Amino acid sequence: MHIVCCVKQVPDTAQVKIDPETGTLVRAGVESICNPYDLVAAEAAVQLVEKHGGKVTVISMGPPQAEAALRQCLSLGVTEAILLSDRVFAGADTLATSYTLALAISKISASQPVHVVICGKQAVDGDTAQTGPGIATRLGYDQFTYVSEIVSVDPERGTITVKREVEGGVEVIEGKLPALLTAELNLAVPRYASLPEMVRSLRQEIKVWGAADIGAAPDKLGLKGSPTWVKQVFSPPVRKGGLKFEGTENVGKAVGDLLDRLFAEEGGSGMTKSE
């Protein structure tokens, strides 16, 4: 079984700041991490291969520093890593991104057929959840979004059964391979990397492919191939905190102060404390 995982390097969301003048993310001095949903996808892929045999190939589209996210996936037991890095990829929206990743998967599959593609449900810096379904549509794969459990995979029958989260519950679906899954956080728990795998992840060569390597049309890449763009990014205005009444030592007084304030705000409503 050959599984491909698509991962993205994102800013650590706990440290994201926005420049109030330009409306863009301040990336200077901000640590980058592998998208948490994608790490779950990589772990799920490794678990499938451990059960059924085969290999896991992880791919990422991004600048050279995105190599760090790929090496983290290698440390989990991923077999091979490929970085899609080219200046013409810059500024891609989800349409152009899915086009680029789909071409890369097609190239990988040409040499070794791909049975399953697993992506994180969404990237925490964009939250669109569009790239995975976009890849599936371009490749013509069955797609299963919001997957919380892989029930079974039968390579001989060419089928996969999953549980996916829907409003009010879960549903169990069976589909044909090749298929694309988008992972919820509860699909798997990323393991702690063993020392041998950490050493391997640091030493292993990562292939780098540009636009020419995947046969991409220039007008479908990056900004040229992106019909959507972000007009403005801004932080929500800071809201003033509400009143606080300390009741640690005297609960009765705190309740009385709260009631006094509430009735004062009601003003001429005619309400009294006795009511």
Description:
The chain is 28% helix and 25% strand. The chain has 6 helices and 13 strands. It has helices at 36-52, 67-75, 94-111, 131-139, 195-203, 251-266; strands at residues 2-7, 9-11, 17-18, 25-26, 32-34, 55-61, 80-84, 116-120, 142-154, 159-166, 169-176, 179-183, 207-209. The strands form 3 sheets. The chain has a 9-stranded mixed sheet, with helices on both faces.
Topology (elements, then pairings):
Elements: E1 2-7, E2 9-11, E3 17-18, E4 25-26, E5 32-34, H1 36-52, E6 55-61, H2 67-75, E7 80-84, H3 94-111, E8 116-120, H4 131-139, E9 142-154, E10 159-166, E11 169-176, E12 179-183, H5 195-203, E13 207-209, H6 251-266
Parallel strand pairs: 1-6, 1-8, 6-7, 7-13, 8-12, 9-12
Antiparallel strand pairs: 2-5, 3-4, 9-10, 10-11
Helix pairs in contact: 2-5, 3-4
Average pLDDT level: 88
**Terminal Cα separation, in Å?**
72 Å
In terms of quaternary structure, the protein is single chain
Number of helical regions: 6
CATH topology term of the largest domain: Rossmann fold
Coarse morphology = globular
CATH architectural grouping of the largest domain: 3-Layer(aba) Sandwich
How many strands appear in the DSSP assignment? 13
What's a quick, concise take on this entry?
The protein has 275 residues and is α/β, with parallel strands linked by helices. The protein has helices at 36-52, 67-75, 94-111, 131-139, 195-203, 251-266, and strands at residues 2-7, 9-11, 17-18, 25-26, 32-34, 55-61, 80-84, 116-120, 142-154, 159-166, 169-176, 179-183, 207-209. The chain has 2 domains: 2-220, HUPs (Rossmann fold), CATH 3.40.50; 242-275, no CATH class.
